Amino acid sequence: MAQSRSGSLLVITLSLVAVLSVFAVAMARYLSIELRLTKYRLAREQTRGLARSGVYLALQRLVEDAQEGAATYEAYDWLRDDWAVGSQVEVSQPPGATIELEVTDEERKLDLNTAPESALSVASTSPSIAKAIVDYRDEPELGEDRPEWEPPYYAKNYPFRAPEELADLPEMDEPTYAALRATTSPYLVSETPNINTVTPEVLVALGFRPATAEAIRDCRDRGTIFEETSVIVSTAETCARGSLTPEEESLLLNQFGVVSQVFTVVSEGVMTGRPAMRVRIEAVIRRSGCEGDVPTCVVAWRES
Amino acid sequence: MELLIAATIFSVLVTGLTSHLRGGGIVWRRTTETVEALQRQRAALDQLARDLGNAVIYDDREDAYGAEAGTLPPQRFAPDGMDWFTVSLSLSRSAAPSVRFVTYRCEELDGVWGLRRTSQSVGEARARQAAPTPELLLEGCRELSLRYAYTPVEDGQPLEWRPQWPGGSGETLQLPRLMEVTSRMESGQALQRVAAVPVGVLGTVE
Q: Is the ipTM, as predicted for this complex, more than 0.95?
């Protein structure tokens, strides 16, 4: 009988220990999840802060690059300029944190608000989209609005203010949208692309032969700089080994500059370790033409 | 006798343990509810801050805005709600971002108070064909209270916060640079956050 009672107590004790263990494990698991969520949230905020800092760091570099009298001052902007070289900035705290910066000028692109339909047609590889862009931004015409469509479509009849407006155009698809984002910009102050940075695709869209566009790019890759507008034609002539057509010479004479004033900054805050985190901010910075007395300004900000 | 004492001690222990576990369970449940509520609040204010951060002036002509179908709905930064154009970035990289007209209000719908957001494409907003379906972001919000930052009249003074935007006539089609968002909940709790519009401007006091 005594043996039987001892056995019952053991069973009861073991059951209690088992129940308490289940509670302890459940609580530990819950706390572990909460802790991980908190770490994730903290890392995300820190990474976001890093990405935001990166934009203002790039802004500072662009200001310094434009200051006459600065050690690195150049009266032209080119693809090996200080601002153009992508950089990775190590941050001391928190450990494993970096800012990845990439700055590109918008003057390498066509002006979305003034480019002729022919150039947009080549850039988008779609004549109907090029026509839709021109209809969207030009004067109102009878019957161009389609309120009955799903979603309804209205031509803006005013310049693009954001490149994302392209997504509203009828028949727009992803490849065309991507091609237009890469070759056009609504943020330009000057209508003249920078010959030092303009892409071959934009040169072809403007009427250059592909061979000339490639020759200019190769020449730049080898370190040639178009230092002033007055030497654009002669330098391009050397790049193309004297094979420029009269039309190309005329384009080079009237439609290009050598400086850039609007820049897209892609700043990514990166945290390695656990949890790994990456936050991306894309901002457009204008180095001139800002309202008021401000020398530089942020004209667009995209944070996901 | 032995067994009686053992059973008494055991029952006292079990009663004590049970009451502690019950108390712990209640605290746990309340904490979980509070944490979840805080996470919902944070998620709602994050969404609001993201929409404000990506804000754009879609059209800078005052006559492009109006109440009739075909015109753009006006942006509005009032003391109790906001309407504006923003760029919506899809979480999926493959989907193209687009310009949307968004509104934020604390209002009652079907007997439920909450912070509600509507989002429409520019075409839908211009057509005024149907009222957009509000998305409930934060249940229990009774009042949204907004204040906008203004440059102080005298240098060296702190920013002035006013419930109206714009302050000057030149700010009608400009975005406020900073705004203080306060959401008062049914429970009496007030959530506050300062949100920034990087492309906005500080108001000027006239």
A: no
